[in-house]
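# step 3/5: fold
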Amino acid sequence: MSILFLFDGGAYSDKAIDVSRAAAVDCTRPYHIENVWCDSLCVYTNHPYATPFRGFGHSEQAFAIERAIDLLAEKLGMDKWELRRKNAIRPGHTTPTQVRLNRSNVGNLPACLDRLRELMKWDEWQRIEIDAYTVRAKGISCAWKTSTIDTDASSGAILTFNPDGSVNVISGVVEIGTGTKNFYLTATNGC
């Protein structure tokens, strides 16, 4: 399988190069594909520079890969869920970057898919036309996201230990929905 991702990085690279790298690292999604070649290029253009927000390159490649799997299932005359389960990555397989997986770092995707099939009642229906303008449909997709933060990225915090045993934490962390502002640290005697 050969994959080519082209990321519009704008006129400056900023973090767009890291986004394109992140997409390449997880290019197969959580599927076992033994022979894969992925080129993920960050292209300079005359657009404003691009930078990550949440998906960090995964949202873009998710659409491309998951849509390709849907189309492949149709060509094979196979259920989309079944094709995903058959090719789900498992312990003992390797990632596109040749990291060997085990139960600790990959979990049990086939079991998750089995449970999902049951919960969403996949076999009952996939598409219902409500009227001429409304369709209700079910879809399925698998995802994984590894950390591709630079290994030499800097970070820091200021800790102030108060006489009552509490600790003030001052950090430049930005809240983007991850719950970082809900972080509380308390110290007790003996800490």
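# step 4/5: annotate
The beta strands are 2-10, 37-44, 127-131, 134-137, 157-161, 167-171.
# step 5/5: archive (pending)
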